[in-house]
Amino acid sequence: MAPKSKKNAGKRKLSLIEQRKIEAFPEQILAFLDIVGRLKKVRRTGWISHAGITKPESVADHSFRCAILAMCIGDLCSIDTERLIKMLLLHDIHEALIGDYDYYMKKQRGISEVKAEERSAARNILLGLPPKVRKHYSLIWREFEEQNTSEAILANDIDKIEMIMQAMEYERDGYDAKRFDAFWTDVPDKIKNPAMRALLKLLEEKRTVLKRTV
Asked: Which residues is 58 bridged to in the sheet?
């Protein structure tokens, strides 16, 4: 059988079976989207407590650029890009129900208690999805949490790199750079992937140049 031409690539229509799969679960999909949509209103509290930014980015803002960075890194490194993107889109979904806990809040409540709360929230959010999809997303969410695979480790590095990029953007916007020193000091020891360490080094160099111009 001859391969499909590039001209027709991307023009494939949904099969009847695929259409029925979507049509069978409209309420569940919309309910899921309604919940995760709340992430657009959940503020990243670390910027408030550590840097004094009153109206910081949302969790959805953060997850979006994490997913874009995952797409770029995944394609460049020839790894499972789709899985990496899904992991970054799902890694903070629990915050749609419980909010974003910064370091101090987690320490005050207890790390184990917070983790249990996050697992419960993620489970409840995914509960209404079709069984096959729910299981798939649950495994990906848990994979990120357990940090036992190369994709999960890379996803965690991307999560930290995006945070550093946001810190530098706030500095560029005119906020006092000293407010963000803790973020820059804390992140290097947590980055494990060599490519991500190289990216962090470049960001550090750009920050040094930025400080000279402010």
From this structure: 43
pTM (two decimals):
0.88
- Domain membership of residue 153 as a residue range: 25-213
Say which amino acid occupies 111.
Answer: I
Q: What is the CATH number of the domain that holds 77?
A: 1.10.3210.10
Long-range pairs of 197-201 with CB within 8 A, sequence gap ≥ 24: 199/161, 200/161, 200/164
For residue 148, is it within any domain?
Answer: yes
Tokens of 178: 């000293």
pLDDT at 83: 96
Q: What are phi and psi of 73, to 5 degrees?
A: -65, -45
Structure tokens at 147: 């940090």
Would you list the DSSP string of 138-189? HHHHHHHHHT-SHHHHHHHHHHHHHHHHHHHHHHHTT--GGGGHHHHHHSGG
